[in-house]
Design brief:
This is Trehalose synthase. The strands form 2 sheets. A 6-stranded parallel beta sheet has the order 2-1-3-4-5-6, covered by helices on one side. Strands 9-8-7-10-11-12 form a 6-stranded parallel beta sheet, sandwiched between helices. The protein is of the alpha/beta class. The chain folds into 2 domains: 201 residues, 3-Layer(aba) Sandwich (Rossmann fold), CATH 3.40.50; 183 residues, Glycogen Phosphorylase B (Rossmann fold, 3-Layer(aba) Sandwich). The protein contains 15 helices and 12 strands.
């Protein structure tokens, strides 16, 4: 296990973008938790929404006076091959679980659990990668509630993989899911908490004109003098970059100058990323208006989401989809599929459009609807910003989370 380096965060930095009473509630909860020591565990410090969330949640909690640690598992490629298979299986696709997979999973999780020697009052473990650690932690910290935060879409899991996960859930006292439809694991208590974006990070903060111009230059040869539609996602089969290509090709028939940017990073715990990136790049190689971009710095992603005319999130399964909230926060309308947490964020006909996950042609037509109506695009953008401000910014998620901590610890807030 290792502890990632973290930025400094001040709760006061959020005063400009969220209600004062929400910040005061956070301080009240933090006072209640001032004697508690909290541990977060996950499988990677880079790439993907969980790592991004923890990179903000942990330092803000520290600034609030809550002693909070974050430890990341140490594991090799064999383990991540297994856990990616588990991830895929829980989202509805995969080969049967093998005995070899079970052995690899048990060995790595047991080794990591044995490295945690400090005392904690509450443990929050994220996603299936960490589940195998919980029995050992329950023995070592018998008085510490164990919370499991599942960020995966569990609406149609393969039974073999649901059984695999369920074999490790006995130590869980409380589970948190992003939607009620995901709460299919038998645990004593559950809560539904929507993830959030951090509006003061490099990826989401406002950009001055000069900064935006500099990032625009960095994105060359992508030209913003012609319409741009963008998808920002890990290169992952569930994100359906090939479906987005089809939607773009449909839209391009009506908007010949249209460009497509497919931007994504490589999560540290996802061994499929590079292979899929190469497949997508090969599929698009003959079209100079398609740009496959990988591992852009956060400032460039910020600018890309702001400068794009439309953002697409063409997922087939989606735990939540924080990239949707990122784009909406920047007043860019989104065409998204009706899966996972996307419909919680996209209000069809108000800040974007929703299409069925297999309807690439419909997605293309909705892109055209937005590109051909500047007034609608601006109106959707204003609605989008307000939707995220009200529902999907970090202080709101922290209030939800800390209230669960207080309740789990039996404290009076």
């Amino acid at each position: 296990m290792h502890a990632p380096s973290l930025p400094d965060r001040s709760i006061e930095a959020y005063a400009a973008v969220t209600e004062r009473d929400l910040l005061e509630r956070l301080r009240e909860l933090a006072d209640t938790l001032s004697e508690a020591r909290i541990l977060h565990i996950n499988s990677t410090a880079t790439g993907g929404g969980v790592a991004e969330l923890l990179r903000s949640i942990v330092p803000v909690c520290t600034d609030l006076g809550i002693e909070t640690d974050w430890l990341v598992m140490d594991a090799d490629d064999d383990f991540f091959e297994v856990t990616k298979a588990v991830h895929n299986g829980l989202q509805g696709s995969g080969e049967p679980v093998t005995d070899e997979m079970k052995v690899i999973y048990r060995e790595v999780t047991a080794t990591n659990a044995a490295e945690i020697e400090a005392e904690y009052d509450l443990v929050l473990a994220h996603d299936p990668q960490t589940l195998g650690m919980l029995e050992r932690l329950d023995e070592q910290l018998p008085n510490a509630p164990i919370i499991w935060r599942c960020h995966v879409d569990l609406t149609e899991p393969v039974e073999d993989y649901l059984a695999f996960v369920s074999a490790y859930t006995d130590p869980i006292d409380h589970a948190i899911f992003s939607r009620s439809a995901y709460a299919v694991v038998d645990v004593p208590a559950t809560s539904i908490v929507s993830p959030s974006i951090d509006p003061i990070t490099e990826k989401n903060r406002p950009l001055e004109d000069a900064e935006l111009a500099a990032e625009r230059d960095r994105l060359d040869p992508l030209s913003f003098d012609a319409p741009v539609v963008t998808q920002v996602s890990r290169f992952d089969p569930w994100k359906d970059q090939f479906g987005t290509l089809e939607a773009y090709r449909t839209a391009k028939k009506a908007v010949p100058e249209l460009q497509l940017a497919l931007a994504g990073g490589m999560a540290g715990d996802d061994p499929e990323g590079l292979e899929l990136y190469e497949q997508v790049a090969a599929e698009a190689v003959d079209d100079p208006d398609v740009h496959t971009l990988t591992d852009l710095p956060d400032g460039a992603i910020n600018a890309l989401q702001r400068l794009s005319d439309v953002v697409v999130q063409k997922s087939l399964r989606e735990g939540f989809g924080l990239v949707v909230a990122e784009a909406l926060w920047k007043r860019t309308p989104v065409v998204g599929s009706t899966v996972g947490g996307i419909p919680l964020q996209v209000e069809d006909g108000r800040n974007g459009y929703l299409v069925e996950p297999d309807d690439a042609i419909g997605a293309g037509n909705r892109i055209v609807d937005l590109l051909e109506n500047d007034e609608r695009r601006r109106s959707f953008g204003d609605n989008a910003r307000e939707r995220v401000r009200e529902q999907f910014l970090l202080p709101r998620q922290l209030v939800d989370l800390l209230e669960i901590f207080v309740d789990s610890l039996g404290l009076d807030s």
